[in-house]
Each structure stands twice: as C-alpha cells, then as structure tokens.
Write a structure and sequence with these properties.
80% helix, rod-shaped, 83 residues
C-alpha cells in the first residue's frame, strides 16, 4: 500500500554546516575556474586569428622572394654570358 502522506523535502539536522559551506565553496570554485578557462580560450583564439593573418603575409613574402631570386639568377646568367 503506497504512502500518500508524503512530507516535503527538508534538510536533516544531522547534515553539518561545514559540509554545506564546503559544497558552496567548491561550486563557487568550479564556476570561477570555468570562467577563467573561457577567458583563456578567448585569448588564445584571438592570438590564433592574429597569427593567421601574419602567416598569410609571410606566405606572400616567400612567393615574392622566390620571384626576386629567380629574376636575380636570370640577370646574373645574362651578365655572365656578356663577359
């Protein structure tokens, strides 16, 4: 036979206050840790975006340097043939 006479949930007096305080501190610490991790991830994402732009510029410079080296080599060959 089911018990229809249910009492609402309540905190037992045997639960120590230190346990409640400890759980609250741990919860606060977990929230603080998550917020700091979120900020760190945002910072790293911004850095990666900045470095991505630098990477593209570096790639273009490398291509330009190859063209300069090629042109310089051609000029040197022509000068060597002249002598």
């Amino acid at each position: 036979m089911p018990n229809n006479n249910r009492e609402p949930w309540h905190l037992d007096k045997r639960v120590p206050v230190a346990l409640i305080v400890t759980l609250m501190i741990q919860t606060f610490g977990a929230i603080w840790w998550a917020a700091s991790m979120s900020e760190r991830v945002n910072f790293l994402e911004r850095q990666m975006q900045e470095r991505s732009d630098q990477s593209e510029r570096l790639t273009r410079l490398e291509v330009n340097m190859k063209a300069v080296v090629s042109a310089t080599t051609r000029i040197e060959r022509k000068l060597d043939r002249r002598d």
